[in-house]
User: What shape does this take?
Amino acid sequence: MTVAQLVGALAACETPATLINPYRHRDDAFDAVDAPRHRQANLLAYLALRPAPRALLVGEAMGWRGGRFSGIAFTSERQLAQWGAPFSASSLHPGGWTESSATIIHGVLDELALEHQVVLWNSVPFHPHPSGKPLGNRAPTGGEIALGRPLLEQLVGLLQPAEIIAVGRVAEATLGDLATGRVRHPAQGGATLCRNGLRALLG
Assistant: This one.
């Protein structure tokens, strides 16, 4: 399997109504025209710039302020704007969305000069949201984690990273023996522990 085929598999994946597939679905209220295509292109470009990463950081699931609209785990549209072409925003939100977890993770990678040596991913590469609240986050179910597991394994097989770091407990449980390290998830007061953990493992 190639990276393009993996992105194609993501886009083809059918998900239930409360699990948005950003590479397949769009919402007229929030998404620009051809938004899924833009998110596919963002992920392809992101992975193309990191063909042999030192590490893979795996989180829980896409958040609505991050990967839901950027197409890249732990990455917001504001960061895409800073990166410039070929990356592009896909939402109708003026200036694009920003996410605190994305700011924290990329801040450490920038600090350590490792932005292009690390790939960010999620146990569930889709956006779980509460019923009736598309701009909201919830913990993924066991079935949703199982849906993302084959895609995670395919990515690991493609990239062959030397380190696979779980970001949070859900990712740690999903990765099992694949994980070479674990850090605290930056959300809900975990920012400092996450930063320090990443510095210790990647510095």
About this structure: The chain has a mean pLDDT of 96.
